Amino acid sequence: MGKIDRYTRHMLLSEIGKNGQNRLLKSSVIVIGCGALGSIILNMLVRAGVGKVRAVDRDVVELNNLHRQTLFDEKDIGKPKAIVAAEKLRKVNSEIRIDSVIKDVAHSNIENLIKDMDLVLDGTDNMETRFLINDACVKHDIPWIYCGAVGTYGMTMNIIPNKTPCFRCVFPTLKAKVLPTCDTVGVLNTVPAIMGAIESTEALKILLGKNVSPKLLICDVYKQNFSFVKIKKKKECECCAKQNFEFLNAEKRL
């Protein structure tokens, strides 16, 4: 049996098929953040047969991560998340390339990290990094998917440069320090799983060349509420309209 045979259940789908699966095998994705969202995204895309996956994270595994970060166990505490994630995922699918990068993503390295990627996926937990990802992706015309999970709800949005609104069309300016985080309000452990699965599905659609919604999806898992917000591309957006990459140029700090 060839390596393509592991994906037979995908290839039976009219949405993917053999041609689509071969396209995925030739695709490359970078996941920035290997925590709760990143664990789900990495797991799904590696199993789906995305040919090259790059996992980036600066942190080590902690005990309080284990209730939601599904790639890790107690033996991993104290080890770098990116390294552990890559090691475990290679056991899942040894036929694709999985790179691990232990770095704090910053204006000085993000362009180099994403330059050879087809898609950038948000597994982060802070807004400043998202503004930075947005700048770099808009500048280099690389699609990315925003996703966040906190409390009992999550949000996600597909951002296709030159086609859809960008992240700063939604959040022109935002004080990250006033936003709720998992550290301050907690997070229901099912939320990252659900949002990560949605983000992964949208990622596959983008890699397959399918049309994706530009709307912002907001989901309260506990209340089973799903809503979509239509975002307008702002004519005066500092990033996608004016091409003013403040975060990438390190001229703006939250």
Question: Short summary of the structure?
Answer:
By secondary structure, this protein is of the alpha/beta class. It has a single domain (3-229), classed as Rossmann fold (3-Layer(aba) Sandwich), CATH 3.40.50.
Keywords:
254 residues, alpha/beta, Rossmann fold, eight-stranded mixed β-sheet
Strand content bin:
15-25%
Helical proportion, percent range: 25-40%
Gross geometry = globular
CATH top level label: Alpha Beta
Q: In the residues, how many domains can be counted?
A: 1
Low-confidence stretches: none
Count the E strands. 8
Sketch the major β-sheet.
8 strands, mixed
CATH topology: Rossmann fold
- Helix/strand-derived category reads alpha/beta
First-residue to last-residue Cα separation: 53 Å
